[in-house]
Write a structure and sequence with these properties.
By secondary structure, the protein is an alpha/beta fold. Helix content is 25%, strand content 23%. The chain folds into two domains: 23-261, Aldolase class I (TIM Barrel); 263-308, no CATH class.
Length: 308
Amino acid sequence: MAAGSSGICKVRKNEGGRLVLPFAGRVSSVAVDPIEKKPLYHFKPGSAALSIGFVGCNLRCPFCQNWGISQGVDAPTEPLDPGECAALARHARSASVAYTYSEPAVHAEWVIEAMASVRAAGLSNVLVTNGCVLPPASTELLARCDAVNVDLKSWDADFYRRELGGELEAVKAFIAEAFGAGVHVEATTLVLPGANDSDDEIDAMAAFLASLSPDIPYHLSAYRPMHRWTKPATSPDSVVRLAAVARRRLRHVYAGNLASERNDDPCPACGAVLARRAGYSVDSSGLAKGPDGEARCAACGERVAYRL
């Protein structure tokens, strides 16, 4: 980074050979969301998450759905002390704090401090990230994280590098690191017409996730024209078809951003519905907490891949 310039994330700057963080401690959004909006379907279903957004991102996705805060730093921001996050979450009756909307990892120092205070208060930390995070920052973040949703945008390393400015191998390594650290992992792919919507590509991404665990929830979301992309929106039929492809590898695959969206989840042992979903509404009465604290099917008692 040359003197006087900022990195691609736009929130780290070289001033006279010294790294400065002009947007440290400044947030663009604070809201209370259903945890399903992250999207996290198997982590504390039906709960609320205090969601904190920032400005800046280390990718330059031309189809970014939150480009107004991710691709620049002109959005209004306000200061927020990381130690205040837990109190805000309790006041909002939120079970967790989610670092989300734009890329939280480019504000890793602040997020790590906030996560420590949230953990100390007995609440959970959620990271919604593009996964382009390397050690030691990834290790520090994941050590304080309870659940993560990672954008797995493509299985084409050249597409990642050319179109997004990222590295597929870094994303794969982050997902594997999160899973190995015992963090609850879910993944999302925005289905892009003509870019990542082939059966082979979705199958390859599902196979990678399944190599870690076939119980990792996988979300396939329909793209809508945004930022610099004007291609027509992903057809619902395409998302439904690709979800069926992913289910050859994974037990829990969900179709998102569809008007007809219903994502009921059957127990893999007995077929009883564990959770009924319509949009962000969820009925999780099919889940029960066993004597060991693990999530179980309320009908047959089978342990299931949820964290309650």
